[in-house]
Amino acid sequence: MMENASRTAAIRRGDAMEFEAIIHEVLPGLLRAARASGVPEDRVEDTVHASVLVFLRRHADFDGRARVSTWIHGILVHKIAEERRILRRDEAREDIDEVVEARFDADGSWSRPPRGPGDDLAQGEIERLLQECLKEVPDRQRLAFELREVEGFDTEELCNILEVSANNLGVLLFRARSRLRECLESKGVEGSGDARL
Questions:
Q1: Is 104 helix (H, G, I), strand (E, B) or coil?
Q2: For residues 165-194, b (16+ Cβ closer than 10 Å) or e, as one string?
Q3: Which residues pair with 104 in a beta bridge?
Q4: Is the pLDDT of residue 131 over 90?
Q5: In the prediction, which pLDDT does 68 show?
Q6: 195: which residues sit within 8 A by CB, 6+ positions away?
Q7: Distance in angstroms (rounded) separating the CA atoms of residues 105 and 158
Q8: Which domains does the chain have, with CATH numbers?
Q9: What is the pTM for the complete model shown?
Q10: Most confident listed range (49-58, 110-119, 120-129, 174-183)
Q11: Which terminus of the chain, N or C, has less C-beta within 10 A?
C-alpha cells in the first residue's frame, strides 16, 4: 500500500508538523511492537527512540512506495535486530515438520483438535494469560504475531517490515499461533475447533 503523494512530499521536504503527526500516529504501535519482539522493558523506549531518530534523519529517502508507518516499523525491526545482537539473544528454533507432525495426522486433520471456549474465564483473565503466553513465544514469532493481529498489517506490509517472504511469514505466524494455543490450553483456556488465534 502506497503513501499518498502530498504526505510523501511533506515528509521528503522535512515538514515538522507532518513529522509530529506521524510520530503521534505510530508511536503507540512502535512501543507495542518493540515490547512484543522481546526487547527488555528497560530498553523499549530507547529502541523506539532510535528508530524515530533514523526516520527523522533519513526522511528525504522516503519514496512513498509503502505507508510511512510500514517504513518506520521496518526501521524498528532493524533496531530490534541490533538490540538482539547487543544482548546476544538467540531465538529458539524448531523444525516446522515436527510442529506439523505433532498437531496434524497423515490426512491433514487435527490429531488433537483445539477444545471449545471456556465459559468460566473472564475476558480480563484470558487477556492476562495471553500476555503470559506471549512471553514464551520466540521474539521474531511474537513480533510477527503482534504486527499482524494487534497492529493489523497485511501480508505484503509485514513481509516488507520483517524482510521475509510470504512463506516465511506464514511459518512465523503458524508457529506463534501454535505456541500460543498450546500455552493457553496448558493454562486451561479451551478453544473451539474452528477458533483462530
A1: strand
A2: eeeebebbbbbbbbbbbbbbeeeebebeee
A3: 110
A4: no
A5: 93
A6: 114, 117
A7: 30
A8: 5-87 (1.10.1740.10), 96-186 (1.10.10.10)
A9: 0.58
A10: 49-58
A11: N
